[in-house]
UniProtKB/TrEMBL annotation:
InterPro entries: NTF2-like_dom_sf. It comes from Heyndrickxia acidicola. This is SnoaL-like domain-containing protein. It comes from the Bacteria. Keywords: Signal. The keyword Signal applies. PROSITE patterns: PROKAR_LIPOPROTEIN (PS51257).
């Protein structure tokens, strides 16, 4: 794999993780390097995960989710994806929880600004469903396609990932607090 392909692979894995995993509250001064390291590690582990992924049970939608909450949760996720695709960092940040223990808002904003200078990314959900709901917390499964284009070279890479996005109901509505992702094998 060439250097350009490696960069795009790293970007695709990062995008598949929707950037949040890269900006943990620990080591925030090196969040960009940590993201690159995690992305490369994820790419290396992807092949090992293949047999696990093939044995996954079917995803089931949670029952008993009030329609009002379901609509509000899906609206936030759609705003999150739309703002990401349009590179609207302020709208993107508004979908995130300032109370998250997985990332810091300021670090996430800086990281996204740097990322969007280098790459154009587009996320397209193939599937989104609430799989766990407990009043003020919801976990949403997404099957996400991501296209990454490196601005300097025009190199393009398409990736698909399975994600679990955790949202918390806060005083100003539902906010994304965590994200876990695993790249699908093609």
């Amino acid at each position: 794999m060439g250097v350009g392909s490696r960069k795009i692979m790293t970007a695709a894995v990062i995008a598949g993780s929707i950037m949040l995993a890269a900006c943990s509250s620990q080591g925030s001064s090196t969040s960009s390097q940590a993201a690159d390291s995690k992305a490369v590690q994820s790419a290396g582990n992807a092949q090992k995960e293949k047999t696990v992924e093939q044995a996954l049970p079917p995803i089931k939608e949670a029952t008993g989710v009030p329609e009002k909450d379901k609509q509000a949760i899906m609206k936030v996720l759609n705003q999150y994806i739309t703002s990401f695709n349009h590179e609207d960092i302020n709208a993107y940040i508004r979908t995130l929880s300032p109370h998250s223990t997985s990332f810091k808002i300021d670090d996430e904003k800086q990281f996204m600004q740097k990322t969007f200078k280098k790459m154009s990314m587009d996320m397209t959900p193939k599937q989104m469903m609430i799989i766990d709901y407990k009043g003020n917390t919801a976990n949403v499964f997404t099957d996400m396609d991501t296209t990454v284009v490196e601005r300097s070279s025009g190199d393009k890479m398409d990736r698909s990932s399975r994600q679990i996005i955790t949202l918390n109901k806060e005083s100003d509505g539902w906010k994304i607090s965590k994200l876990f992702a695993m790249e699908n094998q093609q």
